[in-house]
């Protein structure tokens, strides 16, 4: 059939890694179990009005107890690798100091289960769930949090380092800083440009310090995951081009460039200073931030088209000093998130990153799409839109690889339908369906398609 032909037409480099990704707060549940301390996402999701219908991660996919079944599912799909994040406040309930052994033991059980199943664990230290105790002291706006993050990295290495082959420090620092402190859409839900700019810098500093700690202890294959939203100007007018430049600066370049070159892009630093929110850089920080990494994680979902407007739209945006910039409605079909579908922009993005960061291997650490719940009478989940999105983005990625981009792996977002942050359980990104009443998992057609792709690639057909 057509799907199989499309799957078989994809060509991957030898040794390519195929995986799926999740994040702790989105799947684990069990938020008050085994000594876990509260995180900023517990606080935020329990604050009335912050999330869709007040949804929280209290239960989520109950992965904390159902992980053996989830690992078995990954094995059935033929995944090589699994990207997951660790809940900092399970390991250090107060964010620093006292270690909670029961939290460590959970991740040890999970990792052992993965290794037993022949699945390679990719551990992310931080996917947005800062211990509330650290938020109470200022969170990422406070420079000390960067040092606490490196402390946590060291604790985790001492506890699990012997069995973790791949480490990522942060997932999408853009979201933790700008969505959390500027747009207010994510925890801690603030809307303050000065805080946002401080969070940007302290997250990057924490990343560099954690890399140094892990490297000193002997950890290998260290990386970071960034999200990229390619920015297109609506027209060639100077104002629209400048709007695209500013947003590209804050979404993409502000995070990638200092890690790779040891300098913030000058135009971005100027925009922030002009907006009264300068980056709080101290001597030596940029050397720490640019401590060499072994790989770059790339998360890609869609492209934005932006234009300049003469009056503020009144919508709180995630951009510092970007009040006079507006997003256009995407052209063509959109996912239930309202996001457009632009595989060509994915190819261009990977080629662009190769130019900015030559010699740095890339892994696609997230890519996926949300569609309506599609359980049919036969109990199966037919998700043709997600199948199409998956195959088109895999094709776009292999095109970039043929053009010279050093992409070595792909992780589908997400293994499971899960807690989509402020959008709650309404948005389903999983290749595996989760029934939130029964917690029954059902692989969707997209999961089967992905399994076919993987099998075909391994068979060398
Ligand atoms: C990822 O975030 C997350 O890592 C993952 O946990 C999440 O479930 C998944 O994607 C799906 O959402 O809103 O103006 O800043 C992706 C976050 C959302 C970041 C869109 C960039 C666009 C511009 N991305 N955002 S803006």
TrEMBL record:
Active site: 172, 366
Keywords: Carbohydrate metabolism, Cellulose degradation, Glycosidase, Hydrolase, Polysaccharide degradation
Residue sites binding substrate per the record: 26, 127, 171, 301, 413, 420-421
Pfam family, one: Glyco_hydro_1
Reaction(s) catalysed by this chain's protein: Hydrolysis of terminal, non-reducing beta-D-glucosyl residues with release of beta-D-glucose
GO terms assigned for molecular function: beta-glucosidase activity
Cited InterPro entries: GH, GH_1_N_CS, Glyco_hydro_1, Glyco_hydro_1_beta-glucosidase
GO biological process: cellulose catabolic process
EC number(s) reported in the record: 3.2.1.21
GO cellular component: cytosol
PROSITE patterns: GLYCOSYL_HYDROL_F1_2 (PS00653)
Family listed: Belongs to the glycosyl hydrolase 1 family.
Protein name: Beta-glucosidase
Species of origin: Modestobacter roseus
């Amino acid at each position: 059939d057509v799907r199989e032909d499309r799957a078989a037409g994809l060509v991957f480099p030898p040794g390519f890694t195929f995986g799926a990704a999740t994040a702790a707060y989105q799947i684990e549940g069990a938020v008050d179990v085994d000594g876990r301390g509260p995180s900023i996402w517990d606080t935020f999701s329990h604050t009335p009005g912050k999330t869709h219908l007040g949804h929280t991660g209290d239960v989520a996919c109950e992965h904390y107890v159902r992980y053996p079944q989830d690992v078995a599912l990954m094995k059935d799909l033929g995944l090589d690798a699994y990207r997951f994040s660790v809940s900092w406040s399970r390991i250090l309930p107060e964010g620093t100091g006292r270690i909670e052994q029961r939290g460590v033991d959970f991740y040890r059980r999970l990792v052992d289960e993965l290794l037993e199943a022949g699945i390679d664990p990719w551990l992310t230290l931080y996917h947005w769930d800062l211990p509330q105790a650290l938020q109470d002291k200022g969170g990422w706006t406070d420079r000390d949090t960067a040092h606490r993050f490196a402390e946590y990295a060291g604790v985790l290495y001492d506890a699990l380092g012997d069995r973790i082959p791949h480490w990522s420090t942060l997932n999408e620092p853009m979201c933790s800083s700008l969505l959390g402190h500027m747009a207010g859409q994510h925890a801690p839900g603030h809307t303050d440009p000065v805080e946002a700019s401080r969070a940007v810098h302290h997250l990057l500093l924490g990343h560099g310090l954690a890399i140094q700690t892990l490297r000193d202890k002997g950890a290998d294959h260290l990386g970071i995951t960034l999200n990229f939203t390619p920015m297109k100007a609506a027209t060639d007018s100077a104002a629209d081009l400048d709007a695209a430049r500013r947003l590209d600066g804050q979404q993409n370049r502000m995070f990638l460039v200092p890690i790779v070159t040891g300098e913030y892009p000058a135009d971005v630093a100027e925009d922030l200073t002009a907006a009264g929110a300068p980056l709080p850089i101290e001597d030596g920080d940029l050397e720490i931030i640019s401590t060499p990494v072994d790989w770059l994680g790339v998360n890609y979902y869609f492209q934005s088209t932006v234009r300049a407007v003469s009056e503020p739209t009144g919508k709180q945006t995630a951009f510092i000093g970007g009040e006079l910039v507006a997003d256009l409605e995407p052209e063509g079909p959109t996912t239930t998130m309202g996001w457009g579908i632009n595989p060509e922009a994915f190819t261009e993005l990977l080629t662009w990153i190769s130019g900015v960061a030559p010699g740095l291997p890339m892994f696609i650490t997230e890519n996926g799409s949300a569609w309506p719940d599609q359980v049919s009478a036969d109990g199966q989940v037919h998700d043709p839109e997600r199948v199409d999105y998956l195959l088109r983005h895999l094709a776009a990625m292999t095109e970039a690889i043929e053009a010279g981009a050093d992409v070595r792996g792909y992780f589908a977002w997400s293994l499971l339908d899960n807690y989509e942050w402020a959008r709650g359980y309404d948005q389903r990104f999983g290749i595996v369906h989760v029934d939130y009443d029964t917690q029954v998992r059902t692989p969707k057609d997209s999961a089967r398609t992905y399994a076919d792709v993987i099998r075909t690639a391994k068979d060398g057909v």
